[in-house]
Design brief:
Largest sheet: 4 strands, antiparallel
CATH architecture: Sandwich
Shape: globular
Strand order of the largest sheet: 3-2-5-6
CATH superfamily: Immunoglobulins
Helix content: under 10%
Number of helices: 0
Number of strands: 9
Structural class: mainly beta
Strand content: over 45%
Order of helices and strands: EEEEEEEEE
CATH class: Mainly Beta
Oligomer: single chain
Number of domains: 1
CATH topology: Immunoglobulin-like
């Protein structure tokens, strides 16, 4: 039975490898689609430069990609509401694979980064 909720964790660093932190930063997680990208979540950055997102499989489905089962995700970082970073698109990210031994869902959490922001 596939899971209903998935978690994405992403970490961000400055050019010197230090965590990007502060209330002025925000991160959005998006699913790249043919016409309109789906917003999967938004997060602040914690003291370690980490953003966490929790979203439903229903958030991936949209009118311009009705048969989509795996999202093509990317991250956008803003500082004071101005975009300062956009990641590459990670195609066909799979969250709901099943363990062949236990038949339980695995891969419900995916981690990305660290991304360097200059």
């Amino acid at each position: 039975m596939p899971a209903d909720l998935f978690k994405v964790i992403a970490s961000f660093q400055d050019a010197n490898g230090k965590p990007v932190t502060g209330m002025e930063y925000a991160v959005r997680l998006l699913d790249k689609d043919r016409f309109i990208d789906d917003k999967l979540g938004a997060s602040a950055l914690d003291a370690n430069g980490v953003a966490e997102f929790l979203f439903s499989v229903a958030d991936v489905f949209s009118m311009d990609s009705p048969d989509e089962r795996t999202p093509d995700i990317y991250f956008v970082v803003t500082r004071d509401d101005q975009e300062i970073f956009r990641s590459e698109v990670f195609s066909e990210v799979t969250f709901d694979s099943v363990d062949s031994v236990t038949n339980r869902p695995k891969g419900l959490t995916q981690e990305f980064g660290p991304f360097r922001i200059s």
